């Protein structure tokens, strides 16, 4: 049986998991691939630390058990790239540095397959890499970069090939979903829920990218590229995080038969891409409302096959590693066939204020007659159809009421609010909360 | 661009959908496959009827618009098999006749790829076909045979290759799920729910295979073969249908925080396969309890990646056709690579009475003191641990109470019931209902 030799660059949480699976499942993997898949080299700055978790043999590391300087590691990486007997390189270093980008590019240019879990790099600078993979007729595998163990990449690339993807939505970030779920089900406020998520290992010490929607937006950018063949600017993608979601917002949503979830949504529309990452009020009837904890769920709406949901573990060492290994097997099995990207077209994003969605607007006002009429009149004047008006809460000083609109733009809503402020200065006691609704 | 020519045998619900997608998506499909995918021939007894749904050009049919005799159709099929310019044949005739089996075998032996939606044939007589595909280095594509649009076959074959499937479960039959859902949510009894399903087009005029678990068992057999490499005897697979589920059973389950679902379940155990198709009481916390209507859901538990759920449309013309077409694209794209089956081993099935599960047993007895003690003592005497005992209902003549056991076998339960009957003849006023519980 022909050999298929693999090297791993960066042996942290995911990289060490890949090494473990490659070593543990050697025979099964080789049987599946029709080639003898061998892990031949690992490069990491701190081999002893990297090897400890899963008992990885130290002789696999470049330099053995010795910690490496950055220069030594670079030399090891150069050796891997130059080695004609290495067929595939796993990149699990992480980050979006030019240093790493050039390493990834050189791997592809050397005719080796590249498998990566690096969503930030692919979302922000992926195009050059995909082009290089295409030119050099190798696989750029990135199953692990979107939602860990959930096989959404190969599902779109190999299984939805008899169909047309119309829309993608989902819960693509486990940390924020864990936080929102515990806020809802355990009655926590945001800071406590965040601290719990960190203690449970679901959030990093610096949780910014998880909380502010950046991580989910990386994943959505990658899915948009794959499903729509659309090259969009990650930095222009509209994203809003969950930092401003309060316990009260969640209670309020529950009263209205909804859960608040950080939702990614994308569709093609007249040659543009309409995409957003934002907290939404998801109706209880919608499947996504039932996805709790760190679980991820990707919903794909296809032309012929209708709605699909893929639910699973979006993170974790072995979970993500299993996705990396599936790409290794794929490359080994189908290596003579170019897995070419369909040609990418540059697509503009619809600007956030023009995105058409149904919204829930919650107003805090004085509790006196006439206000509902004034507010709803201003909304109607912007040509927004109102679905329902609920008077959710009254207390001594304030009345909270919410207006559910039919699909409209944020711009229309903001104009309506400006008009309310102009006609009745001081009426709005708080900044109105505007949250899209997912039915 | 190289041509990749396709013929369709049998242009009914699914076959005509395949023709439509091939004709409508010609360009996209060819771009994805890197080959010009062409529909060149259709064989059907009644071309005018077959062409009507989707406006399929009659000149594609063997014999043009003319209805064919069985002999003429056979001759057309022989021509397709003999034609060296046809690369792939779609079989959407259906049934498990030797006539059809031989056609399928000859297609593979002629070096053509074969794509089929025929779950009955694959479950009952598939081995010879898989062997022939392997020997002749062609693809036997069967994505459409299990759960319509849900891409479970390629997910296991191409995406879960970095992992090990431990268990498969799910709702694999949409008709029975539609019936159980409407019984639960609309308060219907079984005959009315069945009639509704037939009127809504979810159930055939003869719904036996959907109702008695046979259809689900076909799918489970196929999944067991793929995921475990295990060759089992379809006819020996334990299956129980939903015919005996009453409105009361469903109410009762709801009182206990469960929905009744027709569940397929399989795992490997010490060189045997433990598999069953049976109604289960699914706890509300379990995802499967939320899958309603004709929707299907496959749950796969993997060693590294944990639990995966794939939810989607399990039937329908274009839904199922899109799965067939994905196999056509796959064959065209990867045709030079044998998609070999891992070697199949013959596995014995664990006999139904030895399957270990937690059960709910509902007893109908007289309403008088002492009975709970007698019944639970008999259960304990069979070495069954009891989880909870609930007194769910009392009426003038009877008390209904349920015993939830820890995992045990049906044999143990039956012995306990026999002992109760022996010790207190006449105590049990109805045959106890024994339903496994899925947590």
How would you concisely characterize the structure shown here?
With 439 residues, chain A is α/β, with parallel strands linked by helices. Helix content of chain A is 39%, strand content 25%.
- CATH H-level superfamily of the largest domain in chain A: NAD(P)-binding Rossmann-like Domain
Low-confidence stretches of chain A: none
CATH topology description of the largest domain in chain A: Rossmann fold
Fraction of residues of chain A in helices?
25-40%
Largest interface: A-B, 57 and 57 residues
The CATH architecture of the largest domain in chain A is 3-Layer(aba) Sandwich
Beta-sheet strand percentage of chain A? Answer: 15-25%
Q: In CATH's first tier, which class of the largest domain in chain A applies?
A: Alpha Beta
Radius of gyration of chain A: 24 Å
Q: Describe the oligomeric state of these chains in a short phrase.
A: homodimer
Distance between the termini of chain A: 53 Å
Q: What shape does the CA trace of chain A take? A: elongated
Query: Biggest sheet of chain A, open or closed, and with what strands and sense?
Result: 11 strands, mixed
Provide the structure class of chain A: alpha/beta
What value does the average pLDDT of chain A take?
94
Number of strands of chain A: 18
Per DSSP, the total helix count of chain A is 15
Count of the separate structural domains of chain A: 3
């Amino acid at each position: 049986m022909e050999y298929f030799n693999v090297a791993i660059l960066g042996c942290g949480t995911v990289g060490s998991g890949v090494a473990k699976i490659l070593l543990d499942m050697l025979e099964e993997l080789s049987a599946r691939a029709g080639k003898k898949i061998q892990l031949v080299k690992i490069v990491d700055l701190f081999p002893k630390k990297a090897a400890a978790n899963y008992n990885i043999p130290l002789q696999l590391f470049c330099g053995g058990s010795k910690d490496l300087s950055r220069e030594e590691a670079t030399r090891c990486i150069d050796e891997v790239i130059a080695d004609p007997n290495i067929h595939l390189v796993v990149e699990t270093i992480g980050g979006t540095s030019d240093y790493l980008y050039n390493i990834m590019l050189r791997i592809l240019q050397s005719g080796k397959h590249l498998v990566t879990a690096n969503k930030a790099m692919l979302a922000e600078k992926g195009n050059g890499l995909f082009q290089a993979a295409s030119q050099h007729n190798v696989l750029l595998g990135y199953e692990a970069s979107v939602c860990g163990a959930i096989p959404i990449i190969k599902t779109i690339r190999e299984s939805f090939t008899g169909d047309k993807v119309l829309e993608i939505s989902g819960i693509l970030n486990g940390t924020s979903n864990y936080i929102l779920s515990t806020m809802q089900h355990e009655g926590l406020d945001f800071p406590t829920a965040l601290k719990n998520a960190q203690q449970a290992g679901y959030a990093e010490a610096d949780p910014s990218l998880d909380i502010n929607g950046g991580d989910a937006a990386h994943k959505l950018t990658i899915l948009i590229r794959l499903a729509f063949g659309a090259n969009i600017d990650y930095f222009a993608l509209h994203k809003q995080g969950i930092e401003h979601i309060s316990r009260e917002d969640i209670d309020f949503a529950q009263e209205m038969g909804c859960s608040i979830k950080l939702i990614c949504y994308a569709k093609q529309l007249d040659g543009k891409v309409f995409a957003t990452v934002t907290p939404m009020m998801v109706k209880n009837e919608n499947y996504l409302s039932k996805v709790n904890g760190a679980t991820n769920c990707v919903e794909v709406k296809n032309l012929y096959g209708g709605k699909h949901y893929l639910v699973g573990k979006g993170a974790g060492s072995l979970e993500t590693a299993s996705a990396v290994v599936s790409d290794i097997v794929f490359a080994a099995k189908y290596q003579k066939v170019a897995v070419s990207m369909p040609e990418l077209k540059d697509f503009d994003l619809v600007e956030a204020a023009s995105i058409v969605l149904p919204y829930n607007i919650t107003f805090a006002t004085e509790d006196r007659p006439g206000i509902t009429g004034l507010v709803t009149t201003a909304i109607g004047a912007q040509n927004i159809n109102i679905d329902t008006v609920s008077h959710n809460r009254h207390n001594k000083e304030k009345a909270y009421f919410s207006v559910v609109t039919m699909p409209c733009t944020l711009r229309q809503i903001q104009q309506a609010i400006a008009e309310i402020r102009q006609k009745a200065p001081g009426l709005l006691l708080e900044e109105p909360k505007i949250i899209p609704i997912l039915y």
